[in-house]
Amino acid sequence: MNETVFRRILTAVTVLGILSIIALTVYTWLLYRDCSVLTYIANKG
Amino acid sequence: MRTKLMKQLASVFALILAFAAFDLAVWQGITRRYIDRHSDEMKRSSVAVSAFLPFDPDSRIVRVESGLTLSGDLPVLDGAAALYPMYAAFAHAVYPPDSVQFDGKDFTPESAVQYTNTRGAYKAVVDGTADVVFCAKPSAEQLAYAKEQGAELELVPIGKEAFVFVVSSDNPVDNLTVEQVRSIFSGQYTKWSEVGGDDTFIDAVQRNTGSGSQTAMLNFMGGIPMKRSLRGALSGRAIGYSFRYYAGDMAGTNGVKMLSLNGVSPDAAHIADGSYPVSSNFYAVYNKANDNENIPRLIDFILSEEGQQIVAQSGYVPLHAAE
Description:
- The structure holds 2 protein chains of 2 kinds.
- Chain A is mainly alpha-helical.
- Chain A has helices at residues 3-34, 37-44.
- Helices cover 89% and strands 0% of the residues of chain A.
- Classes of the chains: A mainly alpha, B alpha/beta.
């Protein structure tokens, strides 16, 4: 594989990975804001 | 050439795998704990207010025959989430139907029934935007705020309720002693195995300051400082506290169970006979300086046979149930 193409693929995967972490963090924060204590306890096992 | 390609593909694959593994760990360890199993209505509010609306034919509130209908300057009612279905039923029993207005999401400012929860209700009765509020005992901060504003609060006991400790329903522990609970919340016990459970850390969850249950918990601890362990928060099984009716019938959360304390379960009979160790009164609270003539009439009704019938049928324990 051409070195330039390889680097572009790595960059694209890294950007998508970071975006997925940001999306998951925002989703978790939104859930955290609305979650009741009882739900938290039930989910925690 | 072929080896180089294999290395490049392996690098890309390893990077994808690393991100996926990280996201999965966050999901398993943190995100899924907060997924609410409630309906949308319950997510918007800690109580499904519209399910207990006064004068709504589909309402789930208790209805009793009452010979009293208040008129004139109606006291504005407010209170704790755990007591909302009860004081909504008081309004239904003795207020005229046009006194309560609900816009589909919240009570309008003109409505004689409001719902702002314990913290909001105590502020409202001090500030004069509510006349009678239904809550557990006020916190030290709430009493200090009343004093600062020059308000003297009258607390009239109107019923009894158990303070309960809840764990996940798959937690093998069913009973704790009062001392064990205090040791858990003070951080002395850090693992469930120390109180007969499995070998996992304890996550002793606390409520926000000023909530009715947090004030009750501080009273229960009797001045012992509470701690929450980081290991427990990250990987432990949780324990929390609430009032019996809220944790049971009202919140309707599947997957939690209430613990017995000192071998006594928190059911109505044990609260009434005093054998459950942590039950306490809840109150109708008003400002002593408030001269609304309907306040004593409303309180008299609440303490009457009909009023106490509402307390009992709403799921709480009447004041004189054991007598």
